[in-house]
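User: Let's play a game. I give you a shape written as tokens, and you guess the letters that built it. Ready? Here's round one.
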């Protein structure tokens, strides 16, 4: 029997040929995979990494540095109005709204301070620092109401600009400038007042105006500017002087005189007295006073702040004076003028540093919370928001009622600020 034999040199009986062939195939396959992967990486679009390294941010912020009453904020892109508190950070596009008797002080990252008066609406437009040049820009828009401002002293590489806009005019303020702008909600008419520093205004109709110390201008609804005017100086307060302590045996029967120096060119004065240096709920708000003295009768014991502005023959109002604080007290052991009124606290709700307090006293009584006067309804009820100190921990809330007969009653409650 003869067996079949392969010819010499046949691949069937050469194991080395198989080994080399398999290795070559593997190398070729690997090369194909590598080349294919390179082509895919080169020509196909690549998505961003899931967690890219953060770039240096050029956007910075503004914050509330003082709040009086219930101030509202609507963050950019949101529909809901939130209650403002001192921990809140304001960004570009956020709206800030104050109601009757409420005020807010907003401080930008560069030190520019904006004081928002009652019944006003503003929008944060810019809070920006260029990371390369360190040049800063802050800007806000006044939809309606009144805003007072003071820009920072910007020096060297960190210099920048502060811009204020209304529906009819945009003003660029220089460093260390101060002034006020009032915007009519119905017409958009703007009343600009430059107390110190320089402001460059450009109206919506293309007019350009430069304002310097104690100058003002009105811009109508069409963007047309009126003539520049010179504002009267701020009065100098004389009595009671700052930090004065006045004691009366019976404050309800005493008379306190507010006295200031006459301002050249002024024909009238506006006088404000309040429990708060923000003057958001004035106890006295007398306008058109012709003399340089106002007599106030029956001030209750407590701390007061007062200030005065001057008005010229054209009706232009100058800046308010710096406020002066004085205190009215009753000598120790002096008898009360009458029996104390009833005082009941029905609820305290604390959110951040904003405290909502509800209660009831007799009709006609005066109520203060930590020295801040609150509104009392005709039936003696009150429901108010007050701002506590920005200090975590236990704080004491003092509610004081002064009855129509002059008697007083206090209630104290402890709250935990977090």
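Assistant: Ready! My guess for every position:
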């Amino acid at each position: 029997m003869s067996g079949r034999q392969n010819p010499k040199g046949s691949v069937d009986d050469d194991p080395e040929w198989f080994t080399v062939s398999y290795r070559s195939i593997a190398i070729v396959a690997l090369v194909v995979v590598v080349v294919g992967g390179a082509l895919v990486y080169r020509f196909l679009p690549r998505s961003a990494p899931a967690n890219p390294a953060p770039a240096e941010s050029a956007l910075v912020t503004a914050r509330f540095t003082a709040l009086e009453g219930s101030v509202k904020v609507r963050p950019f892109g949101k529909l809901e109005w939130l209650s403002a508190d001192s921990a809140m950070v304001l960004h570009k596009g956020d709206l800030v709204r104050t109601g009757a008797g409420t005020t807010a002080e907003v401080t930008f990252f560069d030190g520019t301070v904006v004081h928002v008066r009652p019944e006003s609406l503003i929008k944060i437009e810019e809070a920006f620092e260029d990371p390369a040049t360190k040049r800063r820009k802050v800007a806000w828009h006044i939809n309606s109401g009144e805003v007072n401002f003071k820009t920072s002293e910007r020096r060297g590489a960190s210099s920048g600009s502060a811009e204020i806009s209304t529906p009819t005019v945009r003003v660029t303020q220089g460093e260390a400038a101060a002034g006020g702008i009032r915007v009519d909600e119905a017409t958009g008419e703007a009343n600009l007042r430059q107390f110190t520093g320089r402001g460059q205004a450009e109206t919506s109709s293309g007019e350009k105006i430069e304002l310097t110390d104690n100058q003002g201008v009105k811009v109508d609804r069409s963007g047309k500017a009126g003539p520049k005017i010179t504002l009267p100086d701020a009065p100098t307060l004389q009595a009671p002087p700052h930090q004065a302590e006045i004691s009366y045996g019976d404050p309800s029967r005493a008379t306190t005189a507010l006295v200031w120096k006459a301002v050249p060119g002024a024909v009238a004065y506006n006088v404000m007295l309040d429990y708060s240096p923000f003057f958001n709920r004035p106890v006295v708000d007398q306008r058109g006073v012709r003399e340089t003295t106002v007599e106030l009768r029956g001030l209750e014991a407590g701390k007061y702040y007062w200030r005065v502005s001057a008005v010229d023959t054209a009706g232009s109002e100058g800046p308010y004076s710096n406020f002066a604080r004085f205190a009215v007290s009753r000598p120790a052991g002096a008898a009360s003028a009458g029996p104390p009124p009833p005082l009941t606290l029905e609820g305290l709700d604390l959110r951040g540093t904003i405290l909502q307090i509800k209660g009831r006293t007799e009709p006609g009584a005066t109520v203060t919370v930590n020295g801040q006067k609150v509104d009392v309804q005709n039936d003696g009820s009150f429901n108010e928001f007050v701002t506590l100190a920005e200090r975590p921990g236990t704080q004491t809330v003092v509610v004081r009622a002064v009855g129509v007969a002059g008697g007083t009653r206090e209630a104290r409650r402890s709250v935990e600020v977090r």
